[in-house]
Design a protein that fits this description.
By secondary structure, this protein is mostly helical. The protein has one domain. The chain is built from 17 helices and no strands. Helix 2 runs antiparallel to helix 7. The chain is globular. It starts with a helix and ends with a helix. InterPro entries: AlkB/XylM, FA_desaturase_dom.
Length: 372
């Protein structure tokens, strides 16, 4: 796509409103089965859109090579409230999509296949809204953004991400100490259980350490994880009281799908990359070379530029609208939706990604041995 940098920045400003599409797909799916029948088939509509249509459109629309000017545009863009309010708008969108998705789950005569398709679809919507946007919000300093990020994570029962991602993942990224950084030769199915269990436990450990340093007991009201988990329990209770045990199955099911997709994306973002250990025993500073980058415009608009992940890790406080593309960063061959599907098929994943990792460490092949 060819346009001037100024026009591209203006286009992107309003194209971030595409964030309404994931929850809209919940409503669209219902309209499709009301119009044409086949509700068990249309339960998969969101998956078809995300994992088939978006990858095709990514490659048709192409990449976004525009970076905002650091001196003239970044300060102004960073301070515009529009971008902040857009992320805060996602909280009510997530709540509406979650509740209406539950209503449809309970009032539609799905087969077991259709029910699974619906949980996968709602979970995909939740990872796009709740976890992706919470990721943006929890990196910011304002109380409103912090609380909104925590509430979004509570809707998918993964509040530990708020603690572990900031104090664990960003500190230890691309080292053996980070469970969210996949190693060269490690399959997704080796990675996933360890990542989910370790990151959940590590969040509680990190919060306990913080509280002890501040002179508080980990089992006190100062522990933010207790509060966020109480909110998750309240959501679970609400769905159970409203729709019985199947309401609980729905809420926990979509949460599990969202959590799993988050960790699959973590697998994609850091596969095989690691920070070199220095002579003093410490690791080199995190740079734009320690995360995979993807610059396909459409998916970046849907995900508030999460795919510009290299710049995010090098500069965690940068707001999504001013994240930059770095051509020298390791580049994924496609957008996240395609890479998630590849990750689910380890032989195909290794065939596509291992040569890229090996090229990155060309001349330092011993690094691959140490990383695996």
């Amino acid at each position: 796509m060819t346009t001037t940098p100024q026009h591209m920045l203006l286009l992107k400003k309003y194209a971030y409103l595409l964030i309404i599409i994931p929850p809209a797909l919940i409503f669209l799916s219902e309209q499709l089965w009301l119009a044409f029948g086949h509700h068990n088939l249309f339960a998969f509509s969101t998956l078809i859109f995300v994992y088939l249509m978006v990858p095709v459109m990514d490659h048709i629309i192409g990449k976004d090579a525009v970076n905002p000017d650091e001196e003239k545009e970044v300060p102004a863009l960073s301070g515009q409230r529009y971008y902040r309010w857009l992320t805060l708008l996602v909280l009510p969108l997530q709540l509406v999509a979650l509740v209406y998705g539950g209503y449809l789950f309970m009032t539609t005569d799905f087969s077991w296949i259709g029910a699974i398709g619906w949980l996968l679809s709602v979970g995909t919507c939740s990872v796009t809204l709740a976890i992706n946007v919470a990721h943006e919000l929890i990196h910011k300093d304002t109380r409103t953004e912090q609380w909104s990020g925590g509430l979004l994570l509570a809707t998918v029962c993964y509040s530990g991400f708020k603690v572990e991602h900031i104090r664990g993942h960003h500190v230890h990224v691309s080292t053996p100490e980070d469970a969210s950084s996949s190693r060269y030769g490690q399959s997704l199915y080796q990675f996933l259980p360890h990542a989910i269990v370790h990151n959940t436990a590590n969040a509680w450990k990190l919060e306990a350490q913080r509280l002890r340093k501040a002179g508080h007991s980990p089992l006190s009201w100062h522990n933010e994880l207790i509060w966020w988990n109480v909110i998750s329990i309240a959501f679970a209770a609400m769905f159970t009281l409203t729709w019985g045990w199947m309401g609980l199955v729905y809420f926990l099911g979509q949460s599990l799908v969202a959590i799993t997709l988050l960790e699959i994306i973590n697998y994609v973002e850091h596969y095989g990359l690691h920070r070199r250990k220095l002579d003093n025993g410490r690791y080199e500073r995190t740079t734009i070379e320690h995360s995979w980058n993807s610059n396909y415009l459409l998916t970046n608009l849907f995900l508030f530029q999460l795919q510009r992940h290299s710049d995010h890790h090098a500069n965690p406080k940068r707001r999504y609208q001013v994240l930059r593309h770095h051509e020298e960063s390791p580049q994924l061959p496609s957008g996240y939706a395609t890479m998630v599907v590849l990750a689910l098929l380890p032989p195909l994943w290794f065939r596509v990604m291992n040569p890229r990792v090996e090229h990155y460490y060309q001349g330092e092949e011993h690094q691959l041995t140490n990383a695996s």
